[in-house]
Specification:
The complex is a heterodimer of chains A (about 200) and B (about 260). Chain A is an all-alpha fold and about 200 residues long. Chain A contains 8 helices and no strands. The longest helix of chain A has about 40 residues. Chain B starts with a helix and ends with a helix. Classes of the chains: A mainly alpha (about 200), B alpha/beta (about 260).
């Protein structure tokens, strides 16, 4: 029973969603709109689950005296932003927007910008012509890197053109193949889930 | 790397960039829009990509406002909400436009796929209130905007996979035209959609922003960042070349030994 009910819910939902796509009946439209609303409500509740899990994990680490300062800052941030939004709203010049623009955005941009240093380090250490395939990758990367900056046109008009060709033919062919593979895989997985063959979402039963 | 980027930003030498076909297509579309056409801007990005996203967004928003388009903003990524609202207000203020009459910001909606599909049925049902708490159906600009039938173009400003969902759900199911402003790292991911016509046009990375700014006629963050990006690219190229020289010298010496 523990397995059968979720499987039945999944089967009915899947079949309804599939059927309504091809139906022009008003009831199909009504069901579809209601499902979309339910979907958003359920998702909103999963945000609460995420917040609860975040608080629990951080409190556990604090009680075990692991990374206490960082965990405390995380929890302060978690409570501070909603409090600021509740007190002063989220309009222009509100404390919430000030904290977002002057604290969260710069901190995130800083962490993201660290990628540039990793790229620089990796390009020095890892990008080496050890074999023919590595050499092809190296030359391709150099052409695309040069082709993506405005000065490339001053060096040679061929750079942007070759970069464009690499992007639009060999690279795109590979991406198309991957996308088609993903599409077929998604359809197969969806069918397996609807028909109850794929049950890993039920604690692996 | 840090020094190179900082010095390049301080020097700020202007570059003349030739517009790529995709940027030209995006510009031409907005330039030739009839007055009061509706453009939906979706701010689907994190705060971390703001330095790259901001010039693209401002260039597109300014152009949309200059073309007298009605602009509806929303966000399908929580962090894009405050940023989107701020940038819309900033661009609109430059033209003396009024909130609610010329533009509106509907705020954030969780579960992006259901939101994209829901807009196809009824935008006021998905967003009963705007970001400021006004009832959506009482906002003047929203009169006559019910679903994708009333929206000429969706422009998704993104640093991830949201444009793919706009294409797959908004485009495939409701035949909605989609344009994207993307970070440079994401451009190649959307090339297949661009080539197939599922994505109308792309303004990608700082270079795309600089190209758009030049077409629009007002240089901004995109052009300011061009020298820094060019310098960083050449620094990486130099590191690759030096790394390979050292590698081959090492191999040569090992061969002799």
């Amino acid at each position: 029973m523990q397995t059968r009910i979720p499987l039945l819910v999944c089967l009915i939902s899947g079949v309804i969603m599939f059927a309504q796509y091809f139906s022009s009946l008003p009831i199909a439209k009504s069901i579809y709109e209601n499902i979309l609303e339910w979907w958003q409500i359920i998702f909103a509740f999963t945000l609460f689950v995420g917040v609860a899990a975040f608080i629990k994990t951080n409190l556990k680490s604090i009680s075990q005296k692991k990374e206490t300062p960082y965990r405390t800052i995380s929890l302060i941030g978690l409570f501070l932003m909603p409090i600021l939004a509740l007190i002063g709203g989220t309009k222009i010049d509100s404390p919430f927007l000030w904290a977002f623009e002057n604290m969260q955005a710069p901190m995130q941009a800083t962490v993201f910008s660290l990628l540039a240093f990793f790229v620089a380090s990796a390009s020095y250490r890892g990008f080496r012509a050890r074999s023919i395939s590595a050499s092809i990758l190296l030359v391709t990367a150099l052409i695309v890197l040069i082709g993506r900056v405005p000065i490339a046109e001053l060096i040679s008009e061929s750079f942007p053109k070759i970069g464009f060709w690499i992007q639009n033919y060999p690279s795109m062919s590979a991406r198309r193949a991957i996308l088609i593979g993903i599409g077929l895989g998604s359809m197969t997985t969806a069918l397996r889930v609807i028909l109850g063959i794929e049950r890993t979402y039920l604690r692996g039963n | 790397m840090f020094l190179i980027v900082v010095v390049s930003y301080i020097l700020s030498i202007p570059f003349d960039t030739q517009p790529s076909p995709e940027v030209q297509k995006a510009f031409d579309y907005i330039e030739n829009l009839p007055e009061s056409s509706v453009i939906l801007f979706s701010f689907d990005h994190e705060a971390s990509s703001l330095p790259e996203i901001k010039p693209i967004t401002l260039a597109l928003l300014r152009h949309a406002f200059r073309s007298k388009a009605k602009v509806v903003g929303l966000s399908l990524f929580a962090e894009g909400t405050a940023i989107g609202y701020r940038m819309m207000t900033k661009a609109a203020d430059e033209f003396g436009l009024k909130y609610g009459r010329d533009y509106v910001f509907l705020g954030f909606k969780p579960q992006h796929i259901s939101a994209i599909l829901g807009i196809g049925e009824s935008i006021t049902r998905v967003f009963p209130e705007d970001y400021l708490g006004n009832k959506t159906d009482t906002i003047p600009i929203m009169r006559g905007i019910n679903n994708y039938d009333d929206i000429d173009m969706v422009i998704t400003i993104a640093d991830g996979d949201r444009p793919a969902q706009w294409i797959e759900y908004g485009g495939a199911r409701y035949n909605q035209q989609i344009m994207a402003g993307l970070t440079a790292a994401m451009i190649t991911s959307y090339d297949p959609y661009l080539a197939s016509g599922q994505l109308y046009a792309v303004v990608g990375g700082l270079k795309g922003a600089a190209e758009y700014e030049n077409l629009y006629g007002k240089r901004g963050g995109g052009n300011r960042g061009m020298l820094a990006q060019t310098s960083a690219h050449f620094y990486v190229i130099a590191l690759i070349i030096i790394g390979n020289i050292i590698y081959f010298r090492g191999r040569k010496q090992q061969g002799r030994g």
